[in-house]
Amino acid sequence: MKKNIDKEKMIKKGNKTLEEFKAFIAKGNAMDLAVGVIIGSAFGKIVSSIVDDILMPLIGTIIGGIDFTNLSITIGNATIKYGNFIQNIVDFLIIAICIFFIVKVLKKFDKHEEPKKEEEKKEPNTLLLEEIRDLLKENQKDEIN
Q: What does pTM read for this prediction?
């Protein structure tokens, strides 16, 4: 059961898909997403360092020096390292709290924008129409005098 494959049709379809992909990549959203992923990755390293090098030693001291990573259970030939899982949950919660507070601080900065002057709030068309009105009024005054 061989199917007849139309090579030209396949090439056209492939070229169309390639063009769609190029258009997708060229859109701002894809570029913004790529930048966000790169910055997020770098930020993740910073937060992981804070968690591993600063916060976890402090938390370990507070809770009596317990290190979760070495906790495990052996069942038959399998070793279940549930301590590493607990450690990852603690890391996640600390990272989530850090991100929460960073977003909260950024929102405060966003709210403190200077209030715009009344003229800046108006649309450009409204400003233009007001200028035309004022010029017409001046011309009428000049014609009367």
A: 0.41
